[in-house]
Amino acid sequence: MATKLWAMGLVLSCTLLTTTAQVIYKFGVRPFNIYLILLGLGFYGVAAVILLKALKGGELSVLYPIISTSYIWVSLVSPMFFPTDSMNLMKWGGITLIVIGISFIGIGSQKSGLPHAEVV
Q1: I need a labelling partner for 57 at 20 to 30 A (CA). Which of 6, 29, 48, 96 fits?
Q2: Cα dihedral angle (22, 91, 70, 37), rounded to 10 degrees?
Q3: How many CB atoms lie within 10 A of CB 20?
Q4: Per-residue b/e over 28-59, b at no fewer than 16 CB within 10 Å?
């Protein structure tokens, strides 16, 4: 089964929801705010449902590496909301490695004959 483009889009939206959840969690930690923590859990729950739907449209080995982009989004978005968070050379290096890793997985799946994205 070839991975559908819509499934990749759903997984990408899942990463944006989990990123939102993580930022909301941080807002809810100090001072402790149970409502924000529950809201963050709600975002995670919606993301999980979206991920399950996306997995019906493609291969796990193609879709799951996209989840790692949530680390990129959190690193980029967090400094906008929290002045104590900042981007540094180590974080940029981590983002670069994630992008390279995702690219290698995509290239490897195409060369090895594994299913790849199909525009439908």
Answers
A1: 96
A2: 0
A3: 20
A4: beeeeeeebbebbeebbebbeebbeebbebbb
Identity at 92, one-letter amino acid code: W
The encoded tokens of residue 102 equal 């995702």
Domain span holding position 99: 3-118
Bridge partners, residue 88, by sequence: none
Query: CB atoms < 10 A from the CB of 14, how many?
Result: 25
Retrieve residue 105's tokens.
């997985």
How many domains, in total, are found in the chain? Answer: 1
- Residue by residue, DSSP assigns the chain as -PEEHHHHHHHHHHHHHHHHHHHHHHHHHTTT-HHHHHHHHHHHHHHHHHHHHHHTTS-HHHHHHHHTHHHHHHHHHHHHH-TT----HHHHHHHHHHHHHHHHHHHHHHHTT---EE--
Q: How many CA atoms lie within 13 A of 108 on its CB side?
A: 9
pLDDT, one tens digit per residue, over 21-70 is: 999 999 999 899 999 999 999 999 999 999 999 999 888 888 888 888 89
